[in-house]
Specification:
This protein is of the alpha/beta class. The protein is built from six helices and seven strands. 39% of the residues lie in helices and 26% in strands. It has a seven-stranded mixed beta sheet, sandwiched between helices. The longest helix has 17 residues. It is globular and about 45 Å long.
């Protein structure tokens, strides 16, 4: 099959890695939720050979991820498995870190609640949750472009939207996750780094 391609993955992979690499420097197993095309997984696993990178997504995306993995021939990426955050079937394995990029704003609120809850379940003690994407703060957009993007999201699906940082933080706290740092990223994005108490 023709490999799926995301230009945004190409554009943001290095800036994400600059934050991600120190966080996962002592990790072994990282779960990526919403691996999408698989491009991030390939790049991050290639740059961090000490990691075992576990890819996952909804069923419709698995073939595309496998296409990238087959070409890359990296030994430290696991074959993708189906993970739908709207459901409760999550892996029994424990992970040192969970990473997700550009997924939370697509998810419905109930899915975000599941994401935080089950991530806390599958993380080892002192494990990290790393979320990349746009967020609102104090009820406001951080830029006009984010406001336009939010409207576009709602046009595609009325239940998709840029989420409020304060809501994410409250969910995290309620599930035993503590904010380590909120990183400002290019193009009005953020990286939220949480650690499991």
């Amino acid at each position: 099959m023709t490999k799926p391609y995301s230009e945004s993955c190409v554009q943001n992979k290095d800036v994400i890695l600059s934050v991600l690499a120190p966080i996962v420097s002592s990790c072994s197993d990282v779960l990526e939720i919403g691996s999408g095309t698989g491009q991030h997984a390939i790049y991050f696993a290639e740059k961090s050979p000490h990691l075992i990178w576990h890819t996952s997504d909804c069923h419709v995306y698995l073939a595309g991820i496998n296409a990238w993995l087959s070409e890359a021939c990296l030994t430290n990426i696991k074959e993708p498995f189906e993970l739908d955050v709207s459901k409760s079937e999550w892996p029994e394995m424990k992970f040192d870190a969970v990473f997700t990029a550009n997924s939370v704003h697509i998810m419905h609120q109930a899915d975000v609640e599941n994401l935080i809850h089950f991530t806390a379940e599958v993380l080892k003690r002192n494990g990290s949750l790393i979320i990349y994407g746009p967020f609102n703060y104090a009820g406001s957009y951080t830029s006009e472009s984010n406001a336009r993007f939010d409207q576009w999201l709602k046009d595609q699906d009325p239940l998709s939207c840029i989420k409020h940082f304060e809501d994410i933080d409250r969910l995290a706290i309620n599930n035993g996750l503590k904010l380590v740092k909120d990183y400002s990223m290019p193009a009005n994005n953020r990286i939220l780094h949480y650690i499991k108490d």
